[in-house]
Structure formats: C-alpha cells, structure tokens
C-alpha cells in the first residue's frame, strides 16, 4: 500500500447502519489545514466509488472535521511537468464521470474551511451541509491565476450563475455558510455539532430527489456570459480560459466539458505566467511577511509619532491605531491635526457600513489617536514617522525640530517617495537609527511598504522597522538608497513614457486604452491628473539632475500648467472633468499627429518595458537586492500588471533576447531606452532571473 493510501486510511473511519447507509468520517485533528494533494484527491475519489459500488450500500455520508486545503502549489506545478501527470488527470476524469453516473445519493458535512482541491472534492457530492459558522468554501489559487480543475468548474457552472462562478474561481475569497447557502453552493446548515446526529438520523432514509443532476440552463448561461463580456476584466490567462469555458459550456455535455476543463487546467499549470504569479503572490509575499517577525516580543511597540496629518500621515495614524498602538498625530496647528484624526473616523464608519468592522472597535481605535500641535506630545515615542510634503528643506526642518523627542533607542523614519535617505539622515544625530518607510496611498487599502536603508542605517534599525511594518499587517520590500529608490523611480518612467508618446503625436486615447489592455488599472495620463501636474513638476525639481527625456516632459508639464491645466482638482488636465459628467480626453492643438501608425502592441510593450528596463538598472546598481523584491514592489505598490508576476518575471516570460530587441527598437524615442552592457552580456549567456521558483541573481 502506498504512503498516501496509508495516510488517508489512518484518518478515515467507515461504518454502516441497518439501512445500508455508509458513513465515512475524516478527522484532521491538527490546527493547521490538511494539505490535499492531487494523488490524495484521486485516492479519496476511488474510495468513494469503492463504497458506493458495494451491493449493500444505499447511500453515502461523509463527515469532514477540521481544515482542508490545496497542497503545495510549487509541488503541483512541478508534478505537471511529468508525463504521468496528464494520465493522472485522465484517470480522475474517469472517476468523476463514473461517480456522477451512480444513482446512490451522497452528502458531505463539514465544519471548517475547505479550499482548493478540498473544495473541489466537496463538489463531487450531491449535497454539502455546513456545520457552524466556520464551514467556508473557496478557491484561493484563483487569485494566483490558477484554475482548481478536477471537475470544479464543470460542477459549479451547473450550480451557480456564470458571473458568480467566475468571481468565485478568480477572486480567491472564502464564502461564508450563509452566502454559500443563498447561492446554492451548499444545501443546508447545521448550527453546531450537537445537532449533527439528529440531522444524520433524520436524513438516513434514501431519497432519490437528493441526487444531483448535472444540467446547464442555456438562458442563464447566456445572460451571465453577456454580463462578463461587457465588463472591463483585467487581462490574464485565467480570465481568457474561464471565458472560453463559459462560452463553450452551452454546447457540451458533462463528459465533454470535463475534458475541456481538464485541458484548461493542465494548460494553466504549465504556463510561464502561472509560475510567475505563484512565485510572486504566494511565496515571495509570504517570505516578505516572515521577515517582519524577527524581533523579540519584549521589544514590542507602545507609542508612535506621526508628523504631518495630510492624506498619508492620517492613513498611517489610522493603521497604527488599528494595530492597537497609541499614536500621536502632529501637525502645525490643532485644526489640521484634528482633521487628520477625523480621517480615521471616516474609514471606521465606512468599514462598519460594509460589515467589515464591529461598531465597538471604532471607539478603541479613535481613543488611541492623539491629535496635537505640540511637539512635546511626541516625547517618548519609539518610532517617529515624518510624513510631511515631499520637499527636502521642509523635511529637514521637521526632522531637526522633532528628533529630540524620540526615545534614545528609538528609530526615525521618513515617509518619502523619492528623496535620498542618506541626505535626510544628515539632519538626524545618529544616521544609524534613520530609515525610510514609504507607505502607499490610500494607506488603509495598500498593503506594501517600501523600507529604504541608507548607507549608515544599522541592522537593528532595519529589524525594528520591519517589526513595525509587520505590526501594521503590511508587506515590506527592503531596498537601498538612491534617487526615488525603486517603486517611485520606475513609476516615474511609466508616466514619462506616457507623455513621451503623447509628444510624439500618438493620440491620448490610444495611450490610455493601451495601458489598460496591457493590464494597468489606470493609464499614465489619468494618473498624472490624479497626483496633479504641479506635484510631478516639483518631483522633477527635487532630482539632482534631469535626463534629456525628463527635461522634455518637464517642459511640457510646465506649458500645461501655464494653460491652467493642473489636473483633476482643477477640472482640467490631460482630461476635462465636466460637472456630473464622464471625463473627456483633452486634445492639445499644439501637438502634431503621428504620421506613421504605431501598433497597439508597441504602445503596451513600451509602457511595460520602460519600467522593467529601469528595474534591471536598480538591481544592477544595488538599489534592489533581489528580483523578488522588484516583482513584489512593482505589482503591489504601483500596479504593474498582476498577470506578469512583476517586472523581472515579465522579462523572463518574454525572454531576455526578445526583451532587448524590443528596447533596441524603442531607442529612437528617448534615453530611457539605453540598455546596460551587463544586461546584453546576460542575454548572451542565456540568463534568466528565475528557474521555476528559485532566483538566479547572486
């Protein structure tokens, strides 16, 4: 007997009552979930069939106790490369098909979350009954661009509306029992284990009406696919595959759709995009989270100071208070500080309205925030976070006047998007205790924090900063000092390339639509309107020097500002914003139209490539330590398309040779396309940044 069979048989007990009802009980006694591998899925399906085929069996009940989830994703992806894997899928298809043809009713009762392959296993039963409030279902691998497969789509499309099916398989969210029952994902709820035996006794008689019959309502399917096709869905392999399956479902029977799902599942598992997304969104992010847990518990944080009660400072203060830490929110006057504190109340009210926060939690959060104009209130802070306007002189003054109120062992952090940490640290007495913490706006919704180490930042300061980030349930990347560091630096190139194309005569709508088709949430010109054109000009003016391409963009922004086109707040920027009407593209008559038509692909490749190319420069210069930090930072911080897995995964996915050819073809457009000789050398060596889930970078 294989180890898998031994493992499962040790955990599953089988009994039978006088009416021929077989009851299987599978208990996971550990607090951690049982990782259900595809081999275990196959064996468990075989076990169900073997019981149902017994002559004295009239129906089957499975009681699942404990947490169950999908096995390791990397292991699954590696298995998919073996020739035997496709044969295994063929066998599973046959088992699922055979199971669907047996007329004996089946039911599964479960009391904890079942996700991934475990959720797919539950779908093999005619009925699913939730025990208590923790019996949740979900497919978290969907958020990683993976399809759960193994009959999950084929069963779900006969149970759920297509748009809900799509959302369930792509969002990664867990469905609570009450919602699952409402949509038909489960067939009943039991409030507690005390009622389970009564339920089993009342449902022990064989009832053929309980047998699930697979059937697709073509009218519902058409309506749902029309809804999905009308939405602006972000491009990804999983989206493409699911829409293909949905559109094919109407003309296929159970067996045919099962086979189609099987091929889609295999195709996604073996795709480069899938490996990239899993590597970044699962393993790299988890490693980043783990890095925040090193500090001893006795060094826990009790008081934080935040200077600057604008949008950023207010958001940081809210996150600190939500984490259970007292925070002093200081501004130049009490009115400004109180306004910043009111932001937390606004966030709490919104979360309460959405049922994402309990009413009683709001006063606890608000009590922890002290709004003040007095520097003395910062006295004794273990960390002070300076979050004032992005101006080196202003920040220098704030640091000098507040540094004396920090604990002797405390650390000072600047929330700066682009100003060098080493230069700001000169205003602090001990540069070893100075660090950058770049939060992203809105802070309460953005998970990333870019932690910037100056040359003199000590290891213990970095450790304390990471511990603080972890307390806020944020995800850190650690980078080294430099102008604009990493995320802001490559994001500025995204904005630069958008304006550069506009100056070349490419219509604004093609640039913005091209960005969205590439997978960006917002086009570069719309982003500039949101952050304001004067602020972008100010950022350029803070740089020690500007390249030719940057000067060209800087000069054009100045001309736009002189026309009164400063961005969304003024209702006029790259777009016009008429009252209560959709925004409209602004057509600048001073710009000439492009004589030769650039392709949509070139527009997309330029926006993606310009960020990826400068990311390599950051890695070569030592601003980045590892490609994984670049991938995590680019997708979580600045919206680089998720389907790529990040900037370095993007280069790997298209290949270094093709990437350099693209950059060379774009070199005519500006100095931002200058290719480092070291990258060409790596190309000649056949280099890739990753081999599966392992980084090649030294």
Major pleated sheet? 8 strands, mixed
Q: Based on CA inertia axes, which overall geometry fits?
A: globular
Number of strands: 23
> Domains counted in the coordinates: how many?
3
Mean pLDDT, rounded to whole units?
94
**Name of the CATH class of the largest domain:** Alpha Beta
The CATH superfamily of the largest domain turns out to be 2-enoyl-CoA Hydratase, Chain A, domain 1
Spatial order of the strands forming the largest sheet = 14-13-12-15-16-17-18-19
The percent range for helix content is 40-55%
Low-confidence stretches: none
Helix-and-strand structural type: alpha/beta
Radius of gyration, in Å, reads: 28 Å
**What percentage of amino acids are in beta strands?**
5-15%
User: Judging by the overall fold, what is the CATH architecture of the largest domain?
Assistant: Alpha-Beta Complex
Q: What is the CA-CA span between the terminal residues?
A: 44 Å
